[in-house]
User: What shape does this take?
Amino acid sequence: MSLSVWYTTMPSPFGPLCLAANAQGLIRVDFQQGERPILPEANWQEGGGPITDAKQQLEEYFQGQRQDFHVLLAPQGTPFQQRVWQELQRIPYGSTITYLELAQRLGNPRAVRAVGHANARNPIAIMIPCHRVIGRDGRLHGYASGLDFKRRLLLHEGAQLRQCVLHDGSTFCRLGGSQVDEGV
Assistant: This one.
């Protein structure tokens, strides 16, 4: 027997978000304008279920009234992915860490690539804050909704980014003194 899935879409300053949940908790939060919008399945039900609290907390986050989330999460993934996603939730609001630091926190500094792959498969944007992970060189890397979304989320949280435009027209930011090429 499969679990019932409820979903809703909501506006955000970054474009529409779609949330999906089952009885165990929230299973997806994705920007609909990103690379992997949620396409509700025929048996999904709109509204209801445990997504009401998640939607309210996301609205508070976008209004600058919330920095932590208290919603039951139920992302589907391997045990390693689950460990990475749990560790991501420990990164404070407005802060960043590197993929190497994340691998070290998990007790395996050689697992940088595996950490990056788990980060890329995070099914719950914002609440599992994979946008707070940057490259060792300070560059913004990989975000399913695009680097502009990642940059905008970090700015929303007050991360210290400074945009500059180079003489050739390319754009970069500085994060903690490191040059960050945005590829914009």
User: Anything to note?
Assistant: Confidence is low (pLDDT under 50) at residues 163-172, 177-184. Residues 75 and 184 are 31 Å apart (CA to CA). The beta strands are 6-10, 17-22, 25-31, 45-46, 97-98, 133-134, 161-165, 171-175, 178-181. The chain has two domains: 6-62, 79-181.
